[in-house]
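Hi R.,

Quick one: here's the Tol-Pal system protein TolR sequence you asked about.
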Amino acid sequence: MRSAARHKRMKLKSEINVVPYIDVMLVLLIIFMVTAPMLNANVDVNLPQANAKSMQDKKNPVIVSVDADGHLYLTLENAKKEPVDAETMKAKVGAFVKANPDISVLVAGDREGKYDGVYQVLAELQQAGVAKVGLMSQPPQAGTGNARQ
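And here's the predicted structure, written out as tokens:
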């Protein structure tokens, strides 16, 4: 009788104890939450330079220029470069692109200017209904190194 009671008490359990796995998962979660913000801090960006081919377009593009101070200038086809504000630029370019959907729209940002000026122009052009926008650049001059210092 004792052996039958002993077998009843010592019956094997077929369960997995998941408590240690949960502990490990929580420790890893805390480690990743602490280290993830540190991965993006103080990253130096060294943008590459490339010799891109120039665009061959049948029509003259619309050019929106942003100078170093953030002032906007607009050049429509063969017209002269004229200073504009953001709302005027958005209205004129939007109307011009609706009339000529195949025309290229380019943004020329000054090298010494802030990225914010170019970014604001891109956002304004998107609101004006321009689907494709290109960024203008000049090819590197012969005899100058491509290395940044």
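The mean pLDDT is 78.

Cheers,
M.
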